[in-house]
């Protein structure tokens, strides 16, 4: 008589498991008398971690990425509207921790690096784009984002170019991926190379795209690095104006409107108040603390705005262009800073 063996368990098909998990995430649950989905609950818990003492810029970005790719962002349209405003107010708040004389010195020291890196990146971006046979508008968007200040530059130059949504998405996606890498890699490299606070702050401002990632990486390195990086990066962001005007001329875009980064004026105003109005100085640490929390939350929202669709939209050739430009500007600026800045 043959021994009978129990039938092996039938495992659910991966597609069915994903479908069941997705259905669970959006199924309302009663929580303290409110109807909340698990997706909303996970998102809210991640936000609480970011604004708690445990939060840090790298952790916030990582949590945002996990939320976006694993459970999804239940407040995607709202978070996209809030992100840029939160970043701008956070940068203004950081101005209350700056001294005007030190900022002028840092800006003067970074001016030559800024001019050289912006012009080199734009020219190199043009030739790399032609070599890779990329669309000229996508090429210019990626080069502008790398040269100046990432997503802010792309958002300003895109309308001047009359770029369509797919071209904007490709450029923003490529820049975002490299920003995420820089936020984790740059502080490690800075410590490994024994870079001073001055050197690291300057390097961040030149070689990292977005202001959010620049400030996040620099704040992780030290307060002096944060002050230098913020000042030089915002001075660099002002180059949006001449680059956008030059774009309108080169691409023959009649009636193009240039969006000015007005929040930089708020940062300068906060810095001047902190330097020349002693009565406000006791409030400065509170403003800076809130600004750092706001920046950490900004990085979480940026990470939570990513999706698999955004990653797929980038494509190989645009990413190669962005990566080549980033590596060139990072390595050359690092070499120059280590040999000329103490």
Automatic annotation (TrEMBL):
State the Pfam families in the record: Cons_hypoth698
- Species in which this protein is naturally found: Hymenobacter cellulosilyticus
- Please give the name of this protein: Putative sulfate exporter family transporter
- Taxonomy of the source species: Bacteria, Pseudomonadati, Bacteroidota, Cytophagia, Cytophagales
Q: Topology with regard to the membrane?
A: Multi-pass membrane protein
Q: Does the keyword Membrane apply?
A: yes
**Residues passing through the membrane, by range:** 21-47, 59-79, 110-129, 141-161, 167-188, 234-251, 263-284, 290-311, 323-341
Location of the protein in the cell? Cell membrane
PANTHER family registered for this protein in UniProt: INNER MEMBRANE PROTEIN YEIH-RELATED, UPF0324 MEMBRANE PROTEIN FN0533
Q: Which InterPro entries match?
A: UPF0324_pro
Q: Which family does it belong to?
A: Belongs to the UPF0324 family.
UniProt keyword list: Cell membrane, Membrane, Transmembrane, Transmembrane helix
Entry GO CC: plasma membrane
Q: What is its main location?
A: membrane
């Amino acid at each position: 008589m043959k021994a009978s063996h129990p039938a092996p368990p039938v495992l659910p098909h991966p597609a069915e498991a994903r479908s069941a998990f997705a259905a669970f995430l959006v199924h309302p649950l009663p929580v303290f008398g409110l109807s909340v989905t698990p997706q909303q609950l996970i998102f809210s818990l991640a936000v609480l971690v970011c604004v708690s003492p445990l939060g840090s810029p790298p952790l916030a970005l990582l949590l945002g990425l996990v939320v976006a790719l694993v459970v999804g962002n239940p407040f995607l349209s709202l978070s996209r509207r809030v992100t840029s405003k939160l970043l701008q107010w956070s940068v203004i708040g950081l101005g209350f921790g700056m001294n005007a004389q030190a900022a002028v010195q840092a800006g003067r020291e970074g001016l030559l690096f800024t001019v050289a890196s912006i012009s080199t990146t734009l020219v190199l971006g043009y030739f790399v784009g032609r070599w890779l046979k990329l669309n000229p508008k996508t090429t210019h968007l990626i080069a502008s984002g790398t040269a100046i200040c990432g997503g802010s530059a792309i958002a300003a130059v895109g309308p001047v170019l009359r770029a369509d949504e797919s071209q904007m998405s490709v450029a923003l996606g490529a820049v975002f991926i490299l920003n995420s890498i820089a936020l984790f890699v740059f502080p490690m490299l800075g410590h490994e190379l024994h870079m001073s606070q001055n050197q690291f702050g300057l390097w961040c401002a030149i070689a990292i795209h977005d202001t959010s990632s620049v400030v996040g990486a620099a704040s992780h390195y030290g307060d002096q690095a944060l002050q230098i990086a913020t000042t030089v990066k915002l001075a660099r962001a002002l180059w949006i104006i001449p680059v956008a005007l030059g774009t309108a001329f080169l691409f023959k875009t009649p009636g193009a409107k240039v969006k000015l980064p007005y929040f930089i004026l708020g940062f300068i105003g906060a810095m001047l108040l902190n330097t020349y109005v002693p009565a406000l100085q006791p409030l400065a640490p509170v403003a800076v603390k809130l600004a750092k929390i706001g920046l950490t939350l900004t990085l979480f929202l940026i990470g939570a705005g990513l999706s698999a669709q955004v990653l797929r939209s980038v494509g190989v050739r645009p990413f190669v262009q962005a990566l080549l430009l980033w590596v060139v500007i990072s390595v050359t600026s690092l070499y120059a800073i280590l040999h000329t800045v103490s």
